[in-house]
Every structure is written in C-alpha cells, then in structure tokens.
Write a structure and sequence with these properties.
Helices cover 26% and strands 27% of the residues. By secondary structure, it is α/β, with parallel strands linked by helices. Strands 2-3-4-1-5-6-7 form a 7-stranded mixed sheet, with helices on both faces. β6, α5 and β7 form a beta-alpha-beta unit.
Length: 201
C-alpha cells in the first residue's frame, strides 16, 4: 500500500506552526503607462495575479503615447494584485497602479496601508515616472526606483538614472528586468530594507 502523502510537505514554517503568523506587508508598484507594472507583478506572484486589463481603443489614441511600445494592446484600468512569500514568515502583497493620469484618483486608496512603493522607470521615457516620484515624496512613503531595462535600448547605470531623475542619495535605484523573477525579487528586497531603515518599528 502506498504511503499517504505528507500534508505538510512543501509548506512554510509559519503554515505548520500555528503560534506564528506571517508578517504581511503591502507594496505598491507604480510608474508611467506601459512601463512594466503588470509584468512585474505577474513574474513573481505565487498566486494567479489579478489583472484588470482592458483592450485599448481608438478613444485613447490621442491620450496614451504608444510610440515606444507599439505592440501594447491592453492597459490596466484599476490595479494588478499578486502575492509573494519572500522569507519563511514574510509575505508581500503587491498592488500595481494604473499608469495613465485619468486613473490617478485611485492612488490614494491603493497606497493606504502600504510600507513602500517601487517606482518603475523606462529610460526611453524617464519623464513618465516624475508624477509617481512626486506623489511618494509628497506623502512621505518610502520608495525605490526600479529601472526596467527593455531589450534593444541603451543600458544606463543606476547612478546615471538617479542623476537624471534627481533622486535623493538614500533612495535605492535598481536596474532590473520585470520579466525576470530574480531581478524583481532583488528590487522588492531593496524596497523592504529601505522601508525598514526609514521606519524600523
């Protein structure tokens, strides 16, 4: 007779030890239109990510600049949501914001309760991340800049991007690829560490 499978196999320590609850933290992923927020959330989420994408229509042709991303056919109209367990008892809940200005009214609700934000940047359109940088600076939420390196574009050093965006020296700037889980995790770890440095309690 075959042995019964171990019901606890593959579970995290906190899932089997009922005296310990995981630390759950909320992270916001923000940035301009088409910068890779949906891709980032999807590349690391251990659950099927929630996506609120809609097909782009002719109504947005004069509003959404797709010159740098001509193959983009959909856009986020509410938020993206995913979850990743970073450590045995640290779970991140990722909330991706919509990038277009007409959806910015939702940002106040999306950032409520967040410990920090990852502001994504595309070096072809750095100006698109200024609104997100201004927003998080004004509300005092810790953030990092995650430079999404797109294929076929020049690769810039993190310090060059920092200078171009006038990002303070204490804010981490990471060059990453939103499609690669390892570089996304590196960016999220940098954000968690930065948030803890600023608000250790």
């Amino acid at each position: 007779m075959a042995a019964e499978p171990d019901a606890e196999e593959g579970l995290q320590d906190w899932q089997t030890d009922r005296s310990r609850a995981p630390i759950a933290v909320k992270i916001v992923v923000a940035g301009g239109f088409g910068v890779g927020k949906t891709t980032l959330v999807g590349s690391v989420s251990e659950i099927t990510p929630l996506r609120t994408e809609a097909l782009m229509t002719q109504a947005s042709e004069d509003v959404d600049d797709t010159a740098a991303i001509p193959g983009k056919l959909t856009t986020t109209v509410a938020m993206d949501f995913g979850r990743i367990t970073l450590d045995s008892d640290l779970v991140l809940y990722l909330f991706g914001t919509p990038g277009q200005q007409r959806f910015w009214f939702m940002w106040d609700d999306l950032v409520r309760g967040a410990i920090g934000a990852a502001v994504m940047a595309d070096t072809r359109r750095l100006e698109d991340c200024f609104p997100a940088l201004d927003y998080f600076e004004s509300c005092g939420l810790p953030y990092v800049v995650a430079v999404n390196h797109f294929e076929g574009t020049p690769r810039y050093e993190a310090e060059d991007v920092r200078e171009a965006l006038s990002v303070p020296a204490d804010v981490p700037v990471i060059v990453m690829d939103a499609r690669r889980r390892d570089t996304v995790i590196e960016s999220l770890l940098a954000l968690v560490g930065h948030a803890l440095d600023l608000t250790p309690e």
